[in-house]
Amino acid sequence: MLVDIFSSFDDNNQVFMSVYVLMWLFSLVTILLFSSTYWVSNPRWVGVVMIFKDTVSSQIFRSYGLHMGGFINTITALFMLLIVMNLSGLIPYVFSLTSHLAVSLCLGLPLWLCLIISAIFYNLSSVLASLLPMGAPALLNPFLVIIETISIMVRPITLSVRLMANMSAGHIVLTLIGSYLTTSLFTSSIFTMLLLMSIQILYTIFEFGISLIQAYIFCLLITLYSDEHPH
C-alpha cells in the first residue's frame, strides 16, 4: 500500500500488479543483450550500446586509469549497470535501486577504497606528499593536510549521495504529478488533465536524460579520482 510519496522507495512495498521481480530479471537480460558472445552476428541495436561504451571509454583514455589493469572494463560495466538501474526505475511499479543510499554507496565506496589502497601500496610517500599543496605557508600546513584528508574521505559519500538525491528527487516529482493527474481525471476539466499529462510526459523525458547523465557523472568522478593515483 502506498502510504505517502516515499512509499515507492520501500523495497518491501507490495502494490497491485507489482512488477518488483523485474529487477531480478534485468540482471540476466542485461547479460544476454549486452554480451556479444551470445549472438552469431551483432544486432543493429548493438551500435547504440557501443555509443555508451565508447563515451565512457574515451574519458578513461584521457586519464591515468588507462594504465590500471581492468579499470576500463570495470568503469564501462559500471556505466552500463547504472544506466539499466536508473532507467528501470522509470518503469511503473518497478523498485528504483539507485534511489537508495545503500545501493549507490555499495557501488562507489569499494571503487574509491580500491584506488586509495592501490595508491598506498604503490607509493605511500607520493600519497602523503599529495596531501600538502606545493608552496603552501608553513603555518597552514597542518590545517591543509587535515582539510585535504577530509575532502578525500568524504568523496564516496558525496559520490553516492549525488546519485541517490538526483534519482530520488525525480521519482518524487513524477509521483506527485501522477497523483495530481489521477485526481484530475475525476475532479478537473479536460484542459487541466491534458496539461498535467503533457507535464508528466515531458518530465519523464527529462528524467530519462537525467538517468543517463547521472550514470556518466558517477563514472566520470571515479575516473577523475584515478588521476590522483601515483604514476
From TrEMBL:
<feature type="transmembrane region" description="Helical">
    <location>
        <begin position="203"/>
        <end position="225"/>
    </location>
</feature>
<keyword id="KW-0496">Mitochondrion</keyword>
<dbReference type="GO" id="GO:0045259">
    <property type="term" value="C:proton-transporting ATP synthase complex"/>
</dbReference>
<dbReference type="InterPro" id="IPR023011">
    <property type="entry name" value="ATP_synth_F0_asu_AS"/>
</dbReference>
<comment type="similarity">
    <text>Belongs to the ATPase A chain family.</text>
</comment>
<feature type="transmembrane region" description="Helical">
    <location>
        <begin position="20"/>
        <end position="40"/>
    </location>
</feature>
<keyword id="KW-0375">Hydrogen ion transport</keyword>
<feature type="transmembrane region" description="Helical">
    <location>
        <begin position="101"/>
        <end position="124"/>
    </location>
</feature>
<dbReference type="InterPro" id="IPR035908">
    <property type="entry name" value="F0_ATP_A_sf"/>
</dbReference>
<feature type="transmembrane region" description="Helical">
    <location>
        <begin position="131"/>
        <end position="152"/>
    </location>
</feature>
<dbReference type="GO" id="GO:0046933">
    <property type="term" value="F:proton-transporting ATP synthase activity, rotational mechanism"/>
</dbReference>
<protein>
    <recommendedName>
        <fullName>ATP synthase subunit a</fullName>
    </recommendedName>
</protein>
<feature type="transmembrane region" description="Helical">
    <location>
        <begin position="71"/>
        <end position="95"/>
    </location>
</feature>
<keyword id="KW-0813">Transport</keyword>
<keyword id="KW-0138">CF(0)</keyword>
<keyword id="KW-0472">Membrane</keyword>
<keyword id="KW-1133">Transmembrane helix</keyword>
<keyword id="KW-0066">ATP synthesis</keyword>
<dbReference type="Pfam" id="PF00119">
    <property type="entry name" value="ATP-synt_A"/>
</dbReference>
<dbReference type="InterPro" id="IPR000568">
    <property type="entry name" value="ATP_synth_F0_asu"/>
</dbReference>
<keyword id="KW-0812">Transmembrane</keyword>
<dbReference type="GO" id="GO:0005743">
    <property type="term" value="C:mitochondrial inner membrane"/>
</dbReference>
<dbReference type="InterPro" id="IPR045083">
    <property type="entry name" value="ATP_synth_F0_asu_bact/mt"/>
</dbReference>
<feature type="transmembrane region" description="Helical">
    <location>
        <begin position="172"/>
        <end position="196"/>
    </location>
</feature>
<keyword id="KW-0406">Ion transport</keyword>
